[in-house]
Structure to design on (338 residues):
């Protein structure tokens, strides 16, 4: 994986709004209004980086790793994303996300008979990896599916903190792990990645495939096998929401941040905030996207929303409005978090 950083983005004209007083959340959520998820309402100042760290990364993750990486993580992450994840269409300047190279399906593990040899590689800043950690925790798969946490290195590679090596293969970088597979690998070394320890093979590096595998492919190992985040009765609605949320919200924030022309940026901003407006309206009368049941669609939406005000609004030029200004959407995000 080569490191090739893009030139600074052009100074696009952005739109901002004055933060309005926050109105109480609708009664069906039963929360008192707060601005920060972790900061008491009477606190006047806080460190945004500390706040975001507390929100995104639960206490079950190694505290020494958080302490050692939080100071440099966002600058390094930006460089990593610009080198690996920000290709643009040369004709329009629009961001184009590369496809994942290793896809999977919920039946793959049973065919491989390798359920007890799985290892999950994640990066803490990554919303795509965050969704895998959430599903893993909800299903009670922490023991059968151990984790190695990578952090962005100064050279644009994902590297391992703590003792400096990953927990499954003893590698120093994620690129080295990918290269262990039969035939090697010289493509993009991305997180999340599900690894077969016994076969030394990449099972999957597409986040949605991984959360589907964790949801339904490992129930004989899960502590919460009865929890189904993609029940057959809601599958069509979940897919419908994903077709809206993925391009306009999950990927939409990157389309804004990585746009190379004013036209591409304007289009991305319009798609993003029109979708957020629609979600806010929908959540006026629905606890979750598909009614009263938490689904994979909610988890995918949540990992973008939780980063929005402190990361995407600032670093990715998504400045038109903050999630805290959407009473229903903000309440929905807090509901999932709590």
């Amino acid at each position: 994986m080569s490191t090739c950083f893009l030139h600074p983005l052009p100074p696009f004209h952005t739109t901002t709004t004055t933060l309005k007083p926050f109105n109480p959340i609708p009664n069906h959520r039963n929360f008192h209004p707060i601005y920060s998820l972790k900061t008491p309402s009477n606190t006047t100042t806080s460190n945004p980086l500390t706040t975001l760290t507390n929100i995104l990364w639960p206490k079950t993750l190694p505290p020494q790793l958080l302490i050692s990486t939080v100071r440099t993580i966002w600058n390094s992450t930006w460089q990593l994303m610009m080198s690996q994840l920000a290709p643009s269409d040369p004709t329009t300047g629009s961001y184009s996300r590369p496809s994942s190279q290793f896809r999977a399906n919920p039946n793959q593990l049973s065919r491989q008979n390798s359920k007890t040899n799985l290892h999950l590689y994640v990066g803490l800043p990554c919303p795509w990896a965050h969704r895998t950690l959430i599903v893993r925790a909800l299903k009670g798969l922490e023991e059968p599916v151990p984790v190695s946490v990578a952090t962005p290195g100064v050279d644009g590679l994902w590297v391992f903190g703590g003792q400096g090596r990953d927990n499954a293969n003893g590698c120093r970088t994620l690129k080295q792990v990918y290269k262990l597979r039969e035939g090697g690998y010289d493509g993009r070394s991305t997180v999340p990645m599900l690894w077969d320890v016994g076969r030394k093979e990449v099972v999957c590096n597409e986040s949605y495939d991984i959360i589907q595998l964790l949801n339904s492919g490992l129930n004989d190992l899960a502590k919460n096998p009865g929890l189904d985040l993609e029940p057959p009765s809601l599958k069509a609605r979940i897919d419908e929401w994903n077709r809206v949320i993925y391009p306009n919200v999950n990927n939409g924030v990157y389309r804004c941040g990585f746009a190379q022309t004013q036209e591409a940026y304007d289009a991305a901003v319009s798609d993003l905030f029109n979708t957020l407006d629609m979600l806010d309206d929908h959540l006026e009368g629905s606890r979750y996207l598909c009614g009263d049941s938490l689904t994979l669609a909610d988890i995918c939406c949540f990992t973008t929303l939780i980063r929005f005000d402190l990361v995407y609004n600032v670093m990715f030029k998504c400045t038109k409005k903050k999630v805290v200004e959407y009473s229903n959407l903000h309440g929905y995000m807090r509901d999932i978090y709590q």
Confidence is low (pLDDT under 50) at residues 1-10, 17-28, 30-53, 57-71.
